[in-house]
Design a protein that fits this description.
By secondary structure, the chain is an all-beta fold. The protein has no helices and eleven strands. A hairpin with a 5-residue loop joins strand 5 and strand 6.
Length: about 120
């Protein structure tokens, strides 16, 4: 399973960040997979942003819940993160991740740098 993030590298404060993860070798609606977004701000560790289960149920970090939205596009085999009202504190490398619940295997994208700056 391969994952690839795509999206703008620079977003202005107060705008909405939108990132797409394109999946190959697996399906975003497969019953055994859960998909999520994780980020790494500069100088800190990994932070879970949120995820979507095969059922379509989404869950978010409490600190981001009011601004984050994750959806799937089955026809393109993608899942998308939207983060509204961004600030410079949202600057990070954003990773998409897939977890195969049947094996416990994890699959990660290479990461996408997103900088929030005017």
């Amino acid at each position: 399973v391969l994952l690839q993030e795509s999206g703008p590298g620079l977003v202005k404060p107060s705008q909405t960040l939108s990132l797409t993860c394109t999946v190959s070798g697996g399906s975003v609606i497969a019953a055994n997979f859960a998909w999520s977004w994780v980020r790494r701000p500069p100088g800190t560790g990994l932070e879970w942003v949120g995820g979507v289960q095969y059922s379509g149920i989404t869950k978010y970090s409490p600190s981001l819940k009011s601004r984050a939205s994750i959806s799937r596009n089955a026809s393109k085999n993608q899942f998308i993160l939207q983060l509204s009202s961004v600030t410079p504190e949202d600057t990070a490398v954003y990773y998409c991740r897939g977890i195969d619940g049947s094996s416990g295997s994890e699959y990660w994208g290479q990461g996408a740098q997103v900088t929030v700056s005017s």
